[in-house]
Specification:
524 residues, alpha/beta, Ubiquitin-like (UB roll), Nucleotidyltransferase, domain 5, 7-stranded mixed beta sheet, 6-stranded mixed beta sheet, disordered C terminus, binds FE2/S2 (inorganic) cluster
Length: 524
């Protein structure tokens, strides 16, 4: 017995066996939907609308023959179609041009550049959501999928995304596909394993050692990619199971390994990867922050896409203002917006130091705060924050801060020794340093020592594409940086518990942030 399901607004009919879930039908019809918790029913992010029943979870609801399912924008995984920006057109000598494709293979999104291999110029930039989100937004969920179903689903999702990105970028400048001559990829250890179809199980299991830390350069056809010139694919070497080629790339791009200055590097993506060091030594670790920084698992959380609230302000009258990405009507709050909201609620005295909401309103049946009333949102549903969202956010920031503290402690240096703090990743780009310090996510350093480096994973991949010596340097970085497993650190859990306060139980660690509420407020 089969059931036919019509998905809207695509108006696509999908036929699946009776007993399948709506999520199964959406996957088999290649509909753009995300399943962040891989269908365990815990994240609440796969809501669809049924004409007769209203809103249900796609992963928990069985199909019925003749069913009509509407997928709202809030259940989309971001833009799966590549968004392409041309920086510079086809060079004059387009006929014999040689192009390279640099890729940041992120867990949530892919970011790429098309580069002229002869002069190093970036011709096109593009990005898209990672379609692997259909198998879970967290890396561990995807590893579990490989363990249960094999590597093909995830490898093919990457192939599709990479092929669509590269082709659309080449087409955007009217060049020929045959001129794509080289590919350089930087991703976390699991993402690189998925691309190469390596067994990722050992990353998830102690002692968290990757099967292949440095994947070999290989013809793209061997990875199932189809480009006329069959370009070689180079993948950045990984440092450890949870500190991957994207971090090697970040070190290469920011030059930490060559500098005298002691640098703390924090890449805030799906995980919090941290590097501490300089030209003489480097230590790394990865803090398992969970998906909170991606806005995942939150009542109104969403990815950083147009219409997401990415910043709030505390107004002089004590009310909260907000802004959205590209100024579109709000439909949710992304990770940066959540940190900003928590920081401003704390400054306003509406959250206590233990992270509890003071005098909460009733929001969707739970104690919470309404940020945007229903009549101002894109889908006429009020946007806000509930206590359990806040708890999740505090756990995430505590994991990262405890990771930073553990690295400092293990290497015997203090916060005052840090000459530079580099925030990297798409998340780090728009984060307000004062907000990050106010909630205790990063150390309370003078603002002029904090810098945003952007997508350093992509920057490092581009360097490797253009210069063979950069690849040798990457090999040296991955071989010399020490990987520290946080779970083995005797004080990590104590540090984690202490960091769950705002900004921290030990206020001496945050001398500027802890007394700043009124100052911040009057400066807005
Ligand atoms: S609740 Fe359905 S994917 Fe998470």
């Amino acid at each position: 017995m089969t059931a036919r399901v019509r998905f809207q607004p695509e108006n696509r009919i999908v036929e699946v066996p009776s007993g399948a879930s709506i999520a199964d039908a959406a996957r088999s019809g290649d509909l753009a939907m995300g399943f962040p918790c891989a269908g365990t029913g815990t994240c609440g992010r796969c809501r669809v609308i049924l004409a007769d029943r209203g809103s249900v979870l796609a992963c928990q609801t069985q199909v019925e023959d003749g069913m009509s399912v509407e997928i709202p924008v809030t259940s989309r995984p971001g833009d799966l179609e590549p968004s392409v920006v041309v920086s510079s057109g086809c060079p004059e000598t387009c006929d014999d041009a040689r192009y390279g494709f640099a890729l940041d293979l992120g867990t949530s999104t892919l970011a790429a550049e098309l580069v002229d291999l002869d002069d190093g110029q970036v011709l096109v930039r593009a990005g898209c959501a990672n379609s692997q989100v259909a198998f879970g937004s967290e890396v561990t969920r995807r590893i579990e999928h490989v363990e249960a179903h094999g590597s093909e689903d995830l490898a093919q999702a990457i192939q599709r995304d990479m092929t669509a990105l590269a082709r659309s970028m080449i087409d955007a400048i009217g060049a020929s596909q045959k001129d794509l001559q080289a590919i350089a990829v930087a991703g976390n250890t699991a993402m690189e394993h998925f691309l190469y179809r390596y067994d990722p199980s050992s990353i998830r299991q102690a002692p968290h050692v990757p099967l292949v830390p440095a994947p070999p350069s290989i013809a793209s056809s061997k990875l199932g990619l189809s480009f006329p010139a069959d370009p070689q694919v180079y993948a950045m070497p990984c440092i450890g199971g949870w500190v991957g080629g994207d971090i090697t790339s970040g070190i290469l791009a920011t030059g930490i390994h060559q500098a005298d200055t002691l640098t703390l590097f924090v890449d805030l993506g799906t995980n919090g990867e941290i590097v501490l060091g300089n030209r003489d030594w480097m230590m790394t670790c990865a803090a398992s922050a969970g998906p909170a920084f991606e806005g995942c698992g939150m009542v109104c959380g969403c990815g950083a896409r147009p219409g997401a609230i990415d910043r709030t302000t505390l107004l002089a009258n004590g009310e909260l203002g907000w802004q959205t990405i590209r100024g579109q009507a709000p439909h949710g709050i992304c990770g940066t917006g959540l940190i900003s909201l928590a920081a401003n609620l704390f400054r306003a005295g509406r959250i206590d130091r233990a992270g509890q909401l003071r005098n909460p309103e009733n929001y969707r049946g739970e104690p919470g705060v309404v940020l945007v009333p229903a009549e101002q949102t894109a889908d006429q549903r009020a946007i806000g924050l509930v206590q359990r969202d806040l708890d999740e956010l505090l756990r995430a920031k505590a994991a990262v801060f405890a990771g930073i503290q553990s690295l400092l402690e293990a290497s015997g240096v203090g916060v005052s020794d840090l000459g530079r703090l580099v925030l990297a990743g798409g998340f780090g780009n728009v984060l307000q340093p004062r907000d990050a310090i106010a909630v205790g996510l990063i150390p309370d350093l003078p603002i002029d020592r904090i810098e945003f480096a952007g997508n350093t994973s992509l920057q490092g991949a581009r360097l490797a594409l253009l210069d063979a010596s950069a690849k040798e340097e990457a090999t040296r970085i991955a071989g010399s940086a020490l990987y520290m497993e946080l779970i083995d650190q005797p004080n990590y859990f104590e540090a984690f518990s202490a960091a769950q306060f705002l900004p921290h139980t030990d206020l001496s660690l945050f001398p500027n942030a802890s007394g700043s509420s009124q100052a911040e407020r009057s400066s807005e």
